[in-house]
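We close this part of the discussion by returning to an individual protein. Part of our work consisted of pairing the sequence of a single chain with a tokenised description of its backbone. No coordinates are needed to read the tokens, only the vocabulary itself. The amino acid sequence and the backbone structure tokens for this protein are reproduced below:
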Amino acid sequence: MTPQAALAAAALFFCLLAIVLIPCAAAGLAMLNAGLGRSRNAAHAMLSALCVLGVAAVAYSVIGCSLQGYPGREALSFALNGKSWSWIGAGPFFFRGVSFEFGDNSPVSLAALLGVFTAGLAALIPLGSGADRWRLGASCASAALLAGIVFPVFGHWAWGGGFLAQLGVNYGLGKGFVDAGGSGAIQAVGGLAALSVTWVLGPRRGKYTAEHMPVAIPGHNAVFVLFGCLLAWLGWLGLNCAGALLHGAPFLRAPLIVVNTTLSAVCALLAAAAITRARFGKPDASLCANGWVAGLVASSAACASVRPSAAMIIGLVAGGLVVFSVEWLEFRLAIDDPGGAVSVHALGGIWGVLAAGIFSSVPGQWLAQFVGVAALLGLVLPATYGLNWLLDRVYPQRVPPQGERQGLDLHELGAGAYPEFMSHNDDLWQR
């Protein structure tokens, strides 16, 4: 075996190991969502995470992988100004044509495996925004739509040789849309779906007074939240390494990817801690945790293409944005987002996409990144809202008032997560 072949084989094996770490990110987000919700909904939150991951994996395997495609494989295109622009994959369903064995087709099979895990990760994000009021069946149906349609379509545009990736070749905009670890394709897509879910469900009962002022509803378990951050960190190291290597980054940049991911998360945490201490007198644990995850989210797009100093700046900005965004969405727009999914994943993901252009030395790269953000806001957000709105017409997504007061653990599962400690506050009946 030649040295080049040995290096290629090592890269593929390393990529497989990195992909196997991604479920840690899902476990971390699930613990964050459960810890930031009420105690009477904790078991429901964790079961919802498992069900959503399963449904998303099936939906992506059946149809999503076909729609996402892979560069150089079957796709539907349209012609504009003499250029061919790919807009959706057209491969066979059920992973037909993908050989899950190491060989000449290994990058395709690894990309398919990565898609299964990342589709589930994207579908998991809206659970944070719909916490304490989202029916289990409705969250699974919404996950199927996201993982089977919305996520793979944008994934094709960004990763599968679609029109965003072609901006460099066809239009001379840098290297085309760059999103190595999925700040846009995974995080922003999931975050915008979370925003759509909050609009469809409305705020929790008792969240706003008659004067439309928000009432603080703290999470029930800060230990869950902070331990979830550590799990998410481990998963993100695998996510960013696998995503970057499969999307063109050299294998030798793996140490840089790990350093950039870690520094971005650390700096985001420190920024959130400093801002909350300056504003409230003491650091806020939940906002610091959200800052940490926002740093991970923002690091993904440029994890393989910026220096560590730039990664630190990306993290600092992400941590600051989350602190002010959570308050602004709650007070100004009456968006009740218990897990901070909109601020962390939608806003953090969009910032990460833009940062990949801002800190790039390639001419025109910033404009390609801006086009990607425009596609997220102009196409993905209306699609996720429209699909969830239609789903709500067919299958109401919110639990009835008595179920929300009783707790989703008892209402939908028949047993609580903490049977020896049950509390039912009357704050749900303030309006």
About this structure: Residues 10-72+105-417 form a domain with the Ammonium transporter fold fold (CATH 1.10.3430.10). The chain has 15 helices and two strands. The chain has one domain: 10-72+105-417. The beta strands are 75-80, 83-89.
